[in-house]
Amino acid sequence: MGNWILAFEIPTVLLFLFAVGMLIKGKDYSRLSNLITAFVFGITLEYFNIFLTAGYHYHTDFLLQFGTPPTNVPIAIGLAWGMLLLTAQDVSQRLKLPLRIRLFFEAAFVVSTDIILDVIAIRLEGGFWVWEDVTTNLSITNTSFFGVGWMNFIGWYFVIFFVSLFLHLMNQKIKPNSWLWQITKVIIVPIVSYLALFGILYLINFYLFTYSWIIFLGLYLISILISLIYLLRNRPIEIEKTHSLFPLLFYLFSYLFSVIAMIGLGLVTEVLWFFFVGLLLFGITIFIVVTITDFKNLTWDAI
């Protein structure tokens, strides 16, 4: 069992269990179903992608796995998906962003974490996961970024975009305390999100694959620009503060894990500029999360 795998998996599971427990205690069934929906979607999407394409496989040393090698998917990956979506939605909601802005903000917010973590994860313990047709090196090409395919980042972007969109739309229609509707959401949102994701990735992969790096950078930078312009044009921003430390703890763990691993792998000396990009994204994310946190009225069991 690798130390890096344990260092990622155990805190991820504990944070997820804490989130579920506090959401149940607070009877916040709408956000609980959002968390479970993202988890279900993440696990099933990963499993079917591996099963159908055999394009990559996960490390077998994770403690909790869904499926068996070579189609195994670590449960922690799905849990991380759920918490990334939950916290991103919480941040955009507390910044009181309208839906048309929230979708772009949440996608960029989550992808900023993924850009750093993916480059690190494929180099730990021989790779938390390994792609079959992508060389793990420190070059940047029109198909990959430091060994991570641009299509992976595009996939992450549209995963968050579509899941957020369909969750927001369904949450407007269903009763927050209706278990039947919440369970229906957990089933329907992954299905429609997967269909939308498959359709757009199919078009890009078969017709625009050569330009995948341009597509990703365009989506990512435009989303940041849209969010920034809105925030600047609507100053001062009315913020609904959270009494929970959970978003701050989650992003501190995510980025600190990546930064420490980057140092441990020696990437700081090899690609110093990427290390500073990671620190910049780390700083911006923590600044935003700190901004929405009410440190004077913290409640330990809030979420």
TrEMBL record:
Q: Which InterPro entries match?
A: CruF-like
The protein's name is: Carotenoid biosynthesis protein
Keyword Transmembrane among record annotations: yes
Query: Which UniProt keywords are present, listed alphabetically?
Result: Membrane, Transmembrane, Transmembrane helix
What's the short name of a Pfam family annotated to this entry? Caroten_synth
Per the UniProt record, the source organism is Promethearchaeum syntrophicum
Q: Where are the transmembrane segments?
A: 6-24, 36-59, 71-91, 103-124, 144-167, 179-204, 210-232, 244-265, 271-292
High-level lineage = Archaea, Promethearchaeati, Promethearchaeota, Promethearchaeia, Promethearchaeales
Is DNA-binding tagged as a keyword?
no
Domain of life here? Archaea
